[in-house]
Design a protein that fits this description.
NADH Oxidase; 5-stranded antiparallel β-sheet; single chain; alpha+beta; 7 helices
C-alpha cells in the first residue's frame, strides 16, 4: 500500500512548488549553453508539458526537437529566409537569428494543430497548445535548466513554416522554446500588481 506523505512533508512540498512557480523567469537565448536535458530529463519535461486542459481530448499540438546538427541547419535556413524578405538585413540581425538556434543546446518548437472541428473552437485548441509551451518553461526550470519562449516573424511566415519546418496549412507555430544551462542569472523584472487585476463580480 502506498503511504501518503505526512502533513509536514506535504506543506514543504507545496511551498517548494509555489517557490518554483513564483521564481519563474525567462533567460535570453544567447545566455543558454550546454548541457541541455538528457533523454530522461526531456522525457519528464514532455510528460509534464502535455498535462494541459484539452477540451474534447483533441491533442491539438505536436513538438519538433531541434538539437545537434539540426540547430546549424535551421539557423542557416532562417538566415536565408531573412535575406529573401530583406536583402539589406544587417549582420547584427542575421547573427541574432543564428544565435537563436545555435546557442541553446535544445530548442523545442510547439505546433498547434488547428483546422476544422465541428465541436471545439479554434481558439480553445490554440490555447491548449499554448499551455504546452508554458508548461515546457516550467518543466525546464524544475529540471534545473533555464528557458525562453520566442516567436518573432518566423512564427508567422508561412513559407518558412511550411517549407522549412514542415507544418501543414492547418498548423500554426506557437513558438520555439530554447532550453539550456544559464550562463548568467536572469534579472527579475517588474510583475503585475495582482491586487489591481482582481475584481469581485457581483450581480
Amino acid at each position: 500500500m502506498q503511504r501518503l506523505p505526512c502533513r509536514g512533508s506535504l506543506i514543504i512540498l507545496i511551498m517548494l512548488t509555489l517557490t518554483t512557480l513564483h521564481s519563474r523567469r525567462s533567460t535570453p537565448t544567447r545566455q543558454l549553453a550546454a548541457p541541455g536535458p538528457d533523454a530522461t530529463q526531456l522525457q519528464r519535461m514532455l510528460e509534464a508539458a502535455v498535462r494541459v486542459p484539452d477540451h474534447g481530448k483533441r491533442v491539438p499540438f505536436r513538438l519538433l526537437r531541434i538539437a545537434g546538427d539540426a540547430r546549424e541547419a535551421l539557423a542557416n535556413a532562417a538566415q536565408a529566409r531573412q535575406l529573401e524578405l530583406d536583402p539589406l538585413a544587417g549582420e547584427a540581425v542575421l547573427e541574432k537569428l543564428r544565435t537563436r538556434f545555435t546557442a541553446p543546446p535544445l530548442t523545442l518548437a510547439v505546433v498547434a494543430i488547428l483546422g476544422e472541428d465541428s465541436k471545439i473552437p479554434v481558439s480553445e485548441r490554440f490555447s491548449s497548445a499554448a499551455c504546452v509551451a508554458f508548461q515546457l518553461l516550467q518543466a525546464a526550470q524544475a529540471e534545473g535548466f533555464a528557458a525562453q519562449w520566442l516567436t518573432g516573424w518566423l512564427a508567422y511566415d508561412r513559407p518558412f513554416l511550411e517549407h522549412t519546418l514542415g507544418l501543414s496549412e492547418h498548423e500554426q507555430l506557437i513558438g520555439t522554446i530554447a532550453v539550456g544551462t544559464p550562463t548568467l542569472e536572469a534579472p527579475e523584472r517588474e510583475r503585475p500588481d495582482v491586487a489591481a487585476l482582481l475584481q469581485d463580480w457581483a450581480p
